[in-house]
Design a protein that fits this description.
Largest sheet: none
Order of helices and strands: HHHHH
Radius of gyration: 22 Å
Distance between the termini: 80 Å
Helix content: over 70%
Strand content: under 5%
Number of helices: 5
Number of domains: 1
Number of strands: 0
Structural class: mainly alpha
Length: 151
Protein backbone atom coordinates (compact mmCIF):
# COMPACT_ATOMS: atom_id res chain seq x y z
CA UNK A 1 0.00 0.00 0.00
CA UNK A 2 2.80 2.57 0.67
CA UNK A 3 3.97 2.08 -2.93
CA UNK A 4 0.54 3.13 -4.25
CA UNK A 5 0.31 6.10 -1.89
CA UNK A 6 3.79 7.25 -2.92
CA UNK A 7 2.92 7.35 -6.64
CA UNK A 8 -0.71 8.47 -6.38
CA UNK A 9 0.05 12.18 -5.79
CA UNK A 10 2.63 12.57 -8.62
CA UNK A 11 0.37 10.68 -11.03
CA UNK A 12 -2.59 12.88 -10.05
CA UNK A 13 -0.50 16.01 -10.61
CA UNK A 14 0.61 14.78 -14.04
CA UNK A 15 -2.97 13.99 -15.04
CA UNK A 16 -4.15 17.42 -13.84
CA UNK A 17 -1.32 19.18 -15.72
CA UNK A 18 -2.03 17.20 -18.90
CA UNK A 19 -5.72 18.02 -18.61
CA UNK A 20 -4.92 21.71 -18.14
CA UNK A 21 -2.63 21.84 -21.19
CA UNK A 22 -5.13 19.91 -23.28
CA UNK A 23 -7.89 22.30 -22.19
CA UNK A 24 -5.80 25.31 -23.17
CA UNK A 25 -4.99 23.69 -26.53
CA UNK A 26 -8.68 23.03 -27.25
CA UNK A 27 -9.64 26.55 -26.13
CA UNK A 28 -7.07 28.13 -28.50
CA UNK A 29 -8.28 25.98 -31.39
CA UNK A 30 -11.90 26.89 -30.72
CA UNK A 31 -11.00 30.56 -30.43
CA UNK A 32 -9.20 30.48 -33.78
CA UNK A 33 -12.16 28.70 -35.38
CA UNK A 34 -14.49 31.40 -34.04
CA UNK A 35 -12.18 34.16 -35.26
CA UNK A 36 -12.00 32.50 -38.67
CA UNK A 37 -15.79 32.22 -38.93
CA UNK A 38 -16.38 35.80 -37.76
CA UNK A 39 -13.74 37.25 -40.08
CA UNK A 40 -14.97 35.16 -43.01
CA UNK A 41 -18.46 36.57 -42.52
CA UNK A 42 -17.08 40.12 -42.37
CA UNK A 43 -14.92 39.43 -45.43
CA UNK A 44 -17.98 38.38 -47.43
CA UNK A 45 -19.77 41.57 -46.40
CA UNK A 46 -16.80 43.68 -47.43
CA UNK A 47 -16.53 41.95 -50.80
CA UNK A 48 -20.24 42.68 -51.30
CA UNK A 49 -19.56 46.37 -50.60
CA UNK A 50 -17.30 46.75 -53.63
CA UNK A 51 -19.10 48.56 -56.46
CA UNK A 52 -20.35 46.40 -59.32
CA UNK A 53 -17.65 44.21 -60.89
CA UNK A 54 -14.80 46.10 -59.19
CA UNK A 55 -14.14 43.33 -56.65
CA UNK A 56 -12.16 41.42 -59.29
CA UNK A 57 -9.68 44.27 -59.72
CA UNK A 58 -8.40 43.75 -56.20
CA UNK A 59 -6.52 40.63 -57.29
CA UNK A 60 -5.27 41.80 -60.67
CA UNK A 61 -1.76 43.11 -61.12
CA UNK A 62 -2.31 43.56 -64.86
CA UNK A 63 -5.66 45.30 -65.24
CA UNK A 64 -5.85 49.04 -64.90
CA UNK A 65 -8.05 49.89 -61.93
CA UNK A 66 -11.62 51.00 -62.51
CA UNK A 67 -12.48 54.71 -62.29
CA UNK A 68 -12.05 56.24 -58.86
CA UNK A 69 -15.08 56.53 -56.62
CA UNK A 70 -15.84 57.09 -52.96
CA UNK A 71 -17.55 53.70 -52.79
CA UNK A 72 -14.47 51.94 -54.13
CA UNK A 73 -12.12 53.76 -51.76
CA UNK A 74 -14.42 52.91 -48.85
CA UNK A 75 -14.51 49.24 -49.85
CA UNK A 76 -10.70 49.09 -49.95
CA UNK A 77 -10.58 50.86 -46.58
CA UNK A 78 -12.99 48.31 -45.08
CA UNK A 79 -10.90 45.47 -46.44
CA UNK A 80 -7.66 46.90 -45.06
CA UNK A 81 -9.35 47.55 -41.69
CA UNK A 82 -10.15 43.85 -41.53
CA UNK A 83 -6.55 43.06 -42.47
CA UNK A 84 -5.23 45.42 -39.79
CA UNK A 85 -7.28 43.56 -37.18
CA UNK A 86 -5.94 40.24 -38.43
CA UNK A 87 -2.42 41.68 -38.31
CA UNK A 88 -2.97 42.88 -34.74
CA UNK A 89 -4.19 39.45 -33.63
CA UNK A 90 -1.14 37.85 -35.24
CA UNK A 91 1.26 40.34 -33.61
CA UNK A 92 -0.32 39.66 -30.21
CA UNK A 93 -0.03 35.89 -30.84
CA UNK A 94 -3.80 35.50 -30.54
CA UNK A 95 -4.03 33.96 -34.00
CA UNK A 96 -2.52 30.71 -35.17
CA UNK A 97 0.36 31.00 -37.63
CA UNK A 98 -1.47 28.69 -40.02
CA UNK A 99 -4.52 30.96 -40.14
CA UNK A 100 -2.39 34.12 -40.42
CA UNK A 101 -0.46 32.62 -43.35
CA UNK A 102 -3.72 32.10 -45.26
CA UNK A 103 -4.75 35.70 -44.73
CA UNK A 104 -1.22 37.04 -45.24
CA UNK A 105 -0.91 35.42 -48.67
CA UNK A 106 -4.14 37.06 -49.83
CA UNK A 107 -3.18 40.42 -48.34
CA UNK A 108 0.17 40.33 -50.12
CA UNK A 109 -1.55 39.45 -53.40
CA UNK A 110 -4.07 42.25 -53.03
CA UNK A 111 -1.37 44.80 -52.19
CA UNK A 112 0.21 43.97 -55.54
CA UNK A 113 -2.90 45.10 -57.40
CA UNK A 114 -2.90 48.43 -59.14
CA UNK A 115 -6.23 49.18 -57.49
CA UNK A 116 -4.97 48.95 -53.91
CA UNK A 117 -1.67 50.65 -54.72
CA UNK A 118 -3.68 53.57 -56.15
CA UNK A 119 -6.06 53.71 -53.18
CA UNK A 120 -3.46 53.30 -50.40
CA UNK A 121 -2.15 56.89 -50.40
CA UNK A 122 -5.73 58.15 -49.96
CA UNK A 123 -6.44 55.99 -46.92
CA UNK A 124 -2.98 55.55 -45.42
CA UNK A 125 -3.57 58.21 -42.75
CA UNK A 126 -6.49 56.16 -41.42
CA UNK A 127 -3.79 53.95 -39.89
CA UNK A 128 -1.72 56.71 -38.31
CA UNK A 129 -2.67 55.37 -34.87
CA UNK A 130 -1.47 51.91 -35.89
CA UNK A 131 1.97 52.64 -37.29
CA UNK A 132 3.02 48.98 -37.33
CA UNK A 133 0.30 48.07 -39.82
CA UNK A 134 0.88 51.24 -41.83
CA UNK A 135 4.58 50.37 -42.14
CA UNK A 136 3.75 46.74 -42.96
CA UNK A 137 1.56 47.82 -45.88
CA UNK A 138 4.08 50.45 -47.01
CA UNK A 139 6.87 47.87 -47.00
CA UNK A 140 4.83 45.35 -49.00
CA UNK A 141 3.82 47.97 -51.55
CA UNK A 142 7.42 49.22 -51.86
CA UNK A 143 8.64 45.66 -52.29
CA UNK A 144 6.09 45.07 -55.03
CA UNK A 145 6.89 48.38 -56.72
CA UNK A 146 10.60 47.48 -56.77
CA UNK A 147 9.96 44.02 -58.20
CA UNK A 148 7.70 45.32 -60.99
CA UNK A 149 10.10 48.12 -61.91
CA UNK A 150 12.84 45.59 -62.66
CA UNK A 151 11.03 44.37 -65.76
Amino acid sequence: MPFLEFWLTPISILIAAASLFFGIYIYRKQTNIQIFLDFTKRYEGIMDSFPNDTVFYRLSTDMEPPPESKELTLAVLKYLNLCSEEYYLMEEKLLSKKLWNIWKDELENILQSKLVRREWPKIKNEYSAYKEFQMYVDDLIKLQTKSTSKF
